[in-house]
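User: Could you go from structure to sequence for me? I need the amino acid at each position, not a summary. Structure tokens:
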């Protein structure tokens, strides 16, 4: 089976495996983290067709024919995505949750370029941060929105 991941067609030999394992083990895209395995923490979040998706609950076959975007696919060459820059300026303590927050924030900013604090809170709230970095997360997403509006 073939998947389109970060704009590239990739051959997948285990389509019945959960997407998180196909991305990490078959395709070598280890930016998608495995956390809880039940879809609660969000560290495995990817975008499928632009929609926030828990890769630990999604068989790879469910992504066939749709674009999968992982944290590795956010940057454009050397240019960071605004959410990457926003989190670089507002770092988290350990970063295990970071891929999920980056992907959720990217999806939020695609559909809502100028989110309110409540919208940022709602988008960030679908992912857990064991270190309690929620203030930094909110600041990072707000900064990413500013950068995106500035065209960076």
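Assistant: Here is the amino acid at each position, in order:
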């Amino acid at each position: 089976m073939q998947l389109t991941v970060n704009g590239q067609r990739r051959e997948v030999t285990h389509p019945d495996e959960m997407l998180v394992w196909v991305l990490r083990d078959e395709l070598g895209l280890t930016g998608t983290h495995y956390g809880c395995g039940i879809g609660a923490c969000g560290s495995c979040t990817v975008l499928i067709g632009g929609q926030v998706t828990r890769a630990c609950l999604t068989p790879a076959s469910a992504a066939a024919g749709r674009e999968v975007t992982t944290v590795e696919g956010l940057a454009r060459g050397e240019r960071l995505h605004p959410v990457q820059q926003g989190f670089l300026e507002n770092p988290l303590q350990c970063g295990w949750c970071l891929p999920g927050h980056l992907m959720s924030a990217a999806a939020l900013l695609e559909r809502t370029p100028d989110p309110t604090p409540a919208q940022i809170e709602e988008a960030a709230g679908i992912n857990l941060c064991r270190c309690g970095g929620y203030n930094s997360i909110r600041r990072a997403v707000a900064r990413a929105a500013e950068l995106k509006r500035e065209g960076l």
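One structural detail worth keeping in mind: The chain has five helices and five strands.
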